[in-house]
Amino acid sequence: MTTGHQRATTWYAWMVFALLLISCLLIAAGICVGSTGFEPINTFLSNPASHDILWHIRLPRSIGAYLAGALLGMTGAIAQGLFRNPLADPYLLGSASGASLGVACALMVFGGSPFAEYWLARLGLTGAAFVGAVSAVLLTLLLARGAQDRLKLLLSGVIVSVIFSAVTSVIAFRSPGILQALQSFLLGSTSFMSWASCVVMGGVLLVGLIASAALARMLDALILGERTAMSLGVYQPVVGGVLILIMSLTTGAAVAHAGLIAFVGLVAPHLGRSFVKANHAKLIGLSTLIGGVLLLAADLLARGLLAPEELPVGILTALLGGGYLCWLMYRQPSTRQTR
Amino acid sequence: MLKLLRALVLSTIASFFSAGFGSASAATIALTGSDGQVVSLPEPPRRVISLLPSWTEAVCLLDRCDHLIGVDRYSNWPSTLKSLPALGGGFDPDIEGILALKPDLILTGAASKANERLRALGLTVLMIDAQTNEDVHRALEMLARVFGLPDQIAEQRWLQIEDEISQAAKLIPPSQRNLRVYFEVSAEPYAAAPDSFLGQTLSRLGLRNIIPAGLGSFPKINPELVVKESPDVIMMSEGNLVNLSARPGWSTLNAVKNQHICLFAKDIANVIVRPGPRMAEGARAIVDCLTKQVSSGLNAAEVTQ
Questions:
Q1: Which of A40, A117, A194 sits opposite B35 (nearest CB)?
Q2: Domain check: are B246 and B147 in the same one?
């Protein structure tokens, strides 16, 4: 038993080491890929513009893509654990439609009253998306009257998503001029990430990791059912509430900076679960690393495939993630039969 | 103590004035973009990137085409710009390519995340939005100020555009005046309303827009409105033509039955829907279509396909 446990821990340590190594390699690759090719690397010392391209564009966007993916992977693992549902993803509680509504409102107000412009210029579209995402989750919590009933929470999330999407559509309908800008947000992109984005996302990721590490054992208990968890001293409404607040922050930060990135939050925990089973501390750790690696790898492809033009990375993650799930579904029945 | 205070006050006033005169002598160009952001340029920019075809064309109209060092992928006029690097679109610009070109000024047409990012990188971004003829006029004046040109130049160019539109209006045969028009900008359908620059051009040409005023520039309309108003002529880009007679009630429209449809080839439609120097060219394309009274070679069989 002990040797089995030890072997699992060693295996986990190796996994983490390998993922960290891949992460570093991908970030190094991220510095090399971009619309201006290798030239900035050759002229790094002599040309200040090359220095800016590497230091202010490629490095922050690579690290930013990694952090956004990590946030989504971590949030996905928490959501799937909390809702005991392998289909749960970070956008489950309305944050995606909240962020879209925030961006739509901001775009509509631009060129409106000077007062609104004053505040908006300070908040920016990123800030508006963050406020929208967090507000949507808080509204979901309010509608479900706390986190004690998970089914109610899921339903509230769906309701808030539908209503916010409808309001976004009304705004886009009334001011068609914002459609293109809104669509470019919905497609997801890492090309606008700065060091400030990295600091914000890094900070939120750290908070999320610490909190989820502290609450991971409670998630393990919740898997056994609410009654068993209660008998183990885990009071679900409080734990659920805290985890949902953390999810709103982490998803809000990722969505605000990267737009709507599909599937990373769903696929990363699934991949993680193929290595670790019922231990949430390890699962959340692995999902975080896998999420980062996935989004950064997708971002590198998005930058390189059509260079110097660039694909929105959200399209690529949807294609790759959807493809992976298709393959998983196709494979699963035959695996069961062989068993 | 009093002396000290007086000296302090005097020196403050002196520094205030010197700062004031200093900035005046440096002749800083200060402008407020459509997004409320103040842009100040120490001198007329020499390296300009335009991320909107309208402003690319406007810069060239002001004879500053040689100051452009990069444009967006949709800017295609004048043809000399083909040699310039294409830097993505207005909403998904190639940030890295833009930074590598070290521009003094970037012109954009809409609020977007890209503008925030470019500004954060220390670049100067001027956003100019134009929905009406007056907006285009103001944009020309603003661009003239950007390049340190006298106001008369912008005024002269604007009067030239106005004059050309008036000339085009004169070419419309009397039988075609007061025709009731529906201009579809895209197939959802979005229409050109009287408040837009395109609606203003239509009314300058003596045509009546079936879309009521007060709905904004390019409102999304209910196709039923077109059936109710039954326009004499329908205008749209070739790309929008998706089986018009299959739209509910449209097969009975006089314009559809009598082939009174102006179908503009994509490159001409592009000219017509750009608020900028080529508005007169767009107006002429509309007049040409009405004069010929043929729907760009399209026959009834094709319309009812």
A1: A117
A2: no
